[in-house]
Design a protein that fits this description.
By secondary structure, the chain is α/β, with parallel strands linked by helices. The protein folds into 2 domains: 7-90, Orthogonal Bundle (Arc Repressor Mutant, subunit A); 159-330, 3-Layer(aba) Sandwich (D-Maltodextrin-Binding Protein, domain 2), CATH 3.40.190.10. Helices cover 43% and strands 20% of the residues. It has helices at residues 7-19, 22-29, 33-47, 63-90, 101-118, 195-202, 218-226, 240-245, 274-293, 308-316, 322-330; strands spanning 52-55, 58-61, 94-99, 123-128, 141-146, 154-166, 186-189, 214-215, 231-236, 254-266, 303-304. Helix 1 crosses helix 2 (22-29) and helix 2 packs across helix 3 (33-47). The two termini are 50 Å apart.
């Protein structure tokens, strides 16, 4: 039979050691300071060691208490994580998806109503932040822009990411060719400084240097383009719905592959959970329908220029490693 320690005493001791006294521990635990002191004393008696050195106006950890406190922290953190995991699995009809804010706003959320029609009893919760933050235990899955390699996870490709300049229909002067792009009207993105050089190189105008306003992420830059502030280099599918609705136009037909794609990531075995299986099937089918039909008949044709020149540009446009480029884009993917 497993002999468990005095758990109430451990809880009181850990709080007192972490917070530096019985009174703050009592406030956290919702009991009196005297109750915390009594529980710690009982724990000391059962263990046969002194955990706190007590004086009239001072409470300090003993060497044994310091060792015990340092070891208890990770154990209790792991217990809390495990409890959260099991509790999350208890409600198998609720899914938590880790996804970047721009992808969520520009693509996923507008399509969730369609999923609700397919599975009205499944609740989808979005945890923004993208997949570059540590994968949280309460996430069912994650969606991010990458290369498909995530140790410990299953990666299922949704669609490719392509760069495409866009602007408002009434933006003036509307450039007729890439050579007519005005540097100060080219909206830049802090986390993706290589996008404009990559597209401009592929368009044959590498000498143009974007000097327009800077935005922290794609979502802000796309909104600025919708409002007529300039020309943004958007990512499909971020801009597809805006083009379809007529809020944006693509002045040129050239789309340039980023060399990355959107993937659905999940831990192995999750596909056996009925709610996740239904969501994954719907998501992959929705992405496949977009890939098969294209974003919209009014959108510019998809031109793939993957010559050595364009490919070389993708490599030279950023001095960072592939993983670093993925991380900077993934913060808002």
């Amino acid at each position: 039979m497993r002999r468990l320690p005095f758990l109430n005493g451990i809880r009181a001791f850990e709080a007192a050691a972490r917070l530096g006294g019985f009174s703050p521990a009592a406030a956290e635990l919702g009991v009196t300071a005297a109750a915390v002191s009594r529980l710690v004393r009982l724990l000391e008696l059962r263990m046969g060691v002194t955990l706190f050195e007590r004086s009239a106006n001072r409470l300090a950890l003993s060497p044994a208490g310091r060792q015990y406190s340092e070891g208890l922290g990770p154990i209790l953190d792991r217990l809390a994580d495990l409890t959260g995991q099991v509790a999350a699995r208890g409600d198998t009809r609720t899914l938590t998806v880790g996804v970047g804010s721009t992808f969520a706003i520009r693509w996923l959320i507008p399509r969730l109503a369609a999923f609700r029609k397919v599975a009205p009893d499944i609740e989808v919760r979005l945890a923004t932040g993208g997949f570059t933050v540590p994968y949280r235990d309460d996430w069912t899955c994650g969606i991010s822009l990458g290369i498909g390699e995530r140790p410990g996870f299953v990666a299922r490709k949704l669609f490719d990411a392509d760069l495409l300049p866009v602007c408002a229909p009434g933006f003036a002067p509307r450039p007729r060719t890439p050579a007519e792009l005005v540097p100060k009207t080219l909206l830049r993105i802090t986390q993706a400084p290589e996008d404009w050089p990559h597209w401009l190189e592929a368009a044959g105008v590498p000498r143009i240097r974007a000097t327009g306003p800077m935005f922290d992420n794609y979502g802000l830059a796309i909104q600025a383009a919708c409002d007529g502030l300039g020309v943004a280099v958007g990512i499909r599918p971020y801009v597809d719905d805006e083009i379809r609705a007529g809020r944006l136009v693509a002045p040129f037909p050239l789309t340039v592959p980023m060399g990355r794609s959107w993937y659905l990531y999940h831990p192995p075995g999750r596909e056996r959970e009925p709610a996740f299986a239904a969501f994954a099937q719907w998501l992959i089918a929705t992405a496949a329908a977009r890939n098969a039909s294209g974003p919209d008949s009014r959108a510019p044709s998809r031109v793939r220029r993957t010559s050595r020149r364009a490919a070389g540009t993708r490599t030279r446009s950023s001095p960072h490693s592939r993983a670093d480029r993925e991380g900077r884009t993934g913060r808002d993917s």
